[in-house]
């Protein structure tokens, strides 16, 4: 929300991936996800790399820690976001980080590769219920369990 428009020397639009890179480049132990995403040769855009990074961070339960590290770097954050962004308002970013830490209770099983993340988020994902080892297919943001008929189509 309220990210400043930034471009590379060649005019390519920078995205939240580049923000994470700027924030985490010099923090030891916080840039494992950055190195992992940079090692995926099929990702060409900042948006695709950002999507892969978020998926990596969710699987490794590091999204809250990562964003918290970035928000603590106020200089870089203010270079990337306008003053009205919730990332620059401490009372709001505390809530955001708190909610992201709650996501650590969810065991995500999403691959960072195997999808064209440069184009779009995947329309199907696999998840494992924490109390049951049975895996289900679902559409993102769909709260209903898929019917057996819909699973046959997959």
Automatic annotation (TrEMBL):
Gene Ontology terms describing biological process: plus-end-directed vesicle transport along microtubule; positive regulation of autophagosome maturation
PROSITE patterns: RUN (PS50826)
Domain RUN per the UniProt entry, residue ranges: 1-115
Any one Pfam family match given in the protein's UniProt record, by short name: RUN
Superkingdom, taxonomy of origin: Eukaryota
Cellular component annotations (GO), alphabetically ordered: autophagosome; late endosome; lysosome
InterPro entries reported in the protein's UniProt record: Run_dom, Run_dom_sf
Protein name according to UniProt: RUN domain-containing protein
Species: Scleropages formosus
